[in-house]
Amino acid sequence: MWHNNILETIGNTPLVKLNKITKDIPATILAKIETTNPGNSIKDRMALKMIDDAEKSGALKPGGTIIEGTSGNTGMGLAMAAIIKGYKCIFTTTDKQSKEKVDALRAFGAEVIVCPTNVDPEDARSYYSVSSRLVRETPNSWKPNQYDNLSNSQAHYEQTGPEIWQQTEGKITHLVAGVGTGGTISGIAKYLKEQNPAIKVLGIDTYGSVFKKYKETGIFDKNEIYPYITEGIGEDFLPANVDFTLIDHFEKVTDKDAALMTREITLKEGIFAGNSSGSAIAGVLQMKHLFKEGDVVVVIFPDHGSRYVGKMFNEDWLRERGFLADEKLTARTIISKKEKQEIITIDCEKTILEAINTIKSLNISQIPVTQKGMVIGKITESDILDALLENPSLRSQPLKSIATVPFPFVDLNTGINKISSLINKENSAVLVEDDNGNIEIITQYDIINAISG
């Protein structure tokens, strides 16, 4: 039996028991693996539902353009459906989202506009505002507005909820899901609570989001809002799809715990899931006191790990944010193993001849070039040689006339692999600012010394 098009393969995703990562919890923990949807995420379900409903209402007309603000997964579902149904797509997203998500949207032929994260939703630069402006400016366009479009939660009421009920044979006692637009958790919760009102619905939130405090106090507190790294969950406003009456409890999870748990899921369960899955399982472990023997806990795994290989699955990215322990050599450990000496710099107004004399007297091969104490470039033996071979009279000229781009700066937590990749023919060293604000230089020799030491 075949499917007529890829959209017919959406849904009927597997439920998989977790064994190692939740071994200390007496309940049965089951992951709803939404990565088996054709767009590798749960958002395929609601994307198709929103389009179908818009076609029925006349809001989306033949040959139209779909314009939406998306963290990537909804865009993928919309783009996939648009190809089959004959629509164009323009998506706005934030600079917080992984490069893999943006590249995937473009692979499906969508135009993607990246907007700043750290602005209010009402700000003209926000990805919400930009998408709304584009709708006003683009003829025959439609904005799904996944946050307030109730077709979002309806998709999960009609599909995901019934699947979970059938797959657990009605034995589910707890639902755990990240809360972003709110469509997933609210739609599933509505269906499940209709079958059994005793089922507990636990929402995963992140620090920097307003949901938890609003649920517990009824207060929308702008002081709760600040930038965070975790993708796919949390918000700085209240989407219409978040039905707080259906969510019994919100559990906040840190960026660090979410990122590290994302990796652990793959390493311990062999499931390549995304960042919000890491948040959900970290939240489950934080809430383990709520679960007893005989309970059946279903955790939504919304998307695929391939969208996070440059972030949560990249050790240098984790180290730069202080999320990963110093298991490998970093800039910090390399400079700690160096013999203490003050870095030599030279002012850009000094002459080339003065630079030659400095290099000779100190027996060094490169010097950072400064202007008013700030590093603005570099000079190497080969730079000087090339310049003088071309024009010997340049000796009296200021260094700024031949200085090249400065050595790259790295963070103290940057790993050795990243540092090594930055040292090449153009850059014989990297610079790092230590804990006291002093500039240190790291060369290939320093790396070799740290490894052998």
UniProtKB/TrEMBL annotation:
<dbReference type="InterPro" id="IPR036052">
    <property type="entry name" value="TrpB-like_PALP_sf"/>
</dbReference>
<comment type="similarity">
    <text>Belongs to the cysteine synthase/cystathionine beta-synthase family.</text>
</comment>
<keyword id="KW-0129">CBS domain</keyword>
<dbReference type="Pfam" id="PF00571">
    <property type="entry name" value="CBS"/>
</dbReference>
<dbReference type="InterPro" id="IPR050214">
    <property type="entry name" value="Cys_Synth/Cystath_Beta-Synth"/>
</dbReference>
<keyword id="KW-0663">Pyridoxal phosphate</keyword>
<dbReference type="InterPro" id="IPR001926">
    <property type="entry name" value="TrpB-like_PALP"/>
</dbReference>
<feature type="domain" description="CBS">
    <location>
        <begin position="335"/>
        <end position="394"/>
    </location>
</feature>
<dbReference type="InterPro" id="IPR046342">
    <property type="entry name" value="CBS_dom_sf"/>
</dbReference>
<dbReference type="GO" id="GO:0016765">
    <property type="term" value="F:transferase activity, transferring alkyl or aryl (other than methyl) groups"/>
</dbReference>
<dbReference type="InterPro" id="IPR001216">
    <property type="entry name" value="P-phosphate_BS"/>
</dbReference>
<dbReference type="InterPro" id="IPR000644">
    <property type="entry name" value="CBS_dom"/>
</dbReference>
<dbReference type="Pfam" id="PF00291">
    <property type="entry name" value="PALP"/>
</dbReference>
<dbReference type="GO" id="GO:0006535">
    <property type="term" value="P:cysteine biosynthetic process from serine"/>
</dbReference>
<protein>
    <submittedName>
        <fullName>Cystathionine beta-synthase</fullName>
    </submittedName>
</protein>
